[in-house]
Amino acid sequence: MTHQLDRAAIDAVLSAAVARGAVPHVAAVVADADGVLYEGGFGVRTVGGDEGPVSANTTFRLMSMTKMIVTAAALQMRDEGILDFTAPVSAYLPEFAEQRVLTGFAGDEPVLVAPETQATVHHLVTHTAGFSYWFWNANLARYEQLTGTPNVVTGKSEALAAPLVHHPGEAIEYGINTDWLGRVMEQAAGQPLDEIVRTRITGPLGMEHTGFEMTAANRSDAATIHVRGEDGAWVNVGDIVGPDPEWIAGGHGMFSTPRDYTRFERALLRGGELDGVRILAEATVNEAFQPQAGSLEFPAELPTADPSASDTLRVGPNNTWGFGLLINTEDSPVGRRAGSGAWAGLCNTHFFIDRASGLCASIYSNTLPFVESEGAWAMFQDFERAIYGVR
């Protein structure tokens, strides 16, 4: 399949977003099975600093784009008989049996009950175990405030003690599932998660600038994270991830470059293989792009519970969860075909893999809040329209 992109149209979308202040910087890549079709970068890595412009080789925090890499390693382990997706989580981590479900509050006292069913590894992989994030769940945000429980970005291990907000299997509730999955994988493999990912995914794919622990070299070309100051201008806040995490965060802990992450996307687009290296069986990749949460749908809208961290996420109807991927079950109005897999990271990185059209793409800005409706989210939508020529 030959793809003809309007590169000037993509450039125009990205440069205009920086010019109008929607984002302080942006880098993006579009590729197909045969190679890269577009690379672009606009803006500087740090506003007010003397660092150079961003590019496809700039280091970005992936945040939740970490999840698909970890999920791919989990699928490898499942296929090799090392990890049982049908097993209860507590079979690998006995302390998980202490998890409770937050059903509400009696005054300022959280009401916690035992889960009606045991959460399995499959529940973790499909975000149906019942976990959430504070920025999209008001009850969890209140619980963390009342109890002093830190959120997971801090890197404090007590963050993993946050309760479920649904009974396992009740709903797709996006949350810290992949952090728990990473700990399960460590127990099953007898290896730390960073080693599992390096030996199974990033190493074989030649993703030399991707990992969990930034070196000095990585930091020297990294885009710092920006928030809006009181006057609306972008302000550098450095990093938001705790500097000394107490566990290896499978849900948000990785960094990468757009060029590196595109190698991972292309491997999935090609059915699990890139440059003669196979990371997943083609049948397993097919599973990842199919609904894996039964009849459950991903919420069309996730209202913000912390506007400083995230705006309301509006993915629209007709979405579900595969293995590590949001799957749109109907064609997207801005371009993607039904059956595409996609996800994003809290600091405004996004990717999608459209196997029907034979395209994959990703876009990177390290800013907060996530999916700011007139900022990064609008830019991402315009980027997708430009790729597909949707007017």
Descriptive account of the structure:
The longest helix is centred in the first third of the chain and has 14 residues, at 66-79. The radius of gyration is 20 Å and the shape is globular. It has a seven-stranded antiparallel beta sheet, sandwiched between helices. It contains eleven helices and 17 strands. Strand 13 (319-321) and strand 14 form a beta hairpin. The protein has helices at 7-19, 66-79, 89-92, 121-125, 138-147, 177-189, 193-202, 216-220, 258-269, 282-288, 376-388, and strands at residues 25-32, 35-43, 60-61, 101-106, 109-113, 225-228, 234-238, 255-256, 273-274, 277-278, 301-302, 313-314, 319-321, 326-328, 341-345, 349-354, 359-364.
- So what's the overall shape? globular
Strand count, sense and closure of the main sheet?
7 strands, antiparallel
Estimated structural class: alpha+beta
Side by side, the strands of the main sheet go 2-1-17-16-15-14-13
Return the string of H and E elements: HEEEHHEEHHHHHEEEHEEHEEEEEEEH
CATH fold-level assignment of the domain at 7-67 and 209-388: Beta-lactamase
Helix content: 25-40%
C-alpha-based Rg, rounded: 20 Å
Report, as a whole number of angstroms, the end-to-end distance.
23 Å
Strand content of the residues, in percent?
Answer: 15-25%
- In the CATH scheme, the class of the domain at 7-67 and 209-388 would be Alpha Beta
Can you name the CATH architecture of the domain at 7-67 and 209-388? 3-Layer(aba) Sandwich
Mean pLDDT: 96
Low-confidence stretches: none
**Total beta strands:** 17
Can you identify the CATH superfamily of the domain at 7-67 and 209-388?
DD-peptidase/beta-lactamase superfamily
SS element count, helices: 11
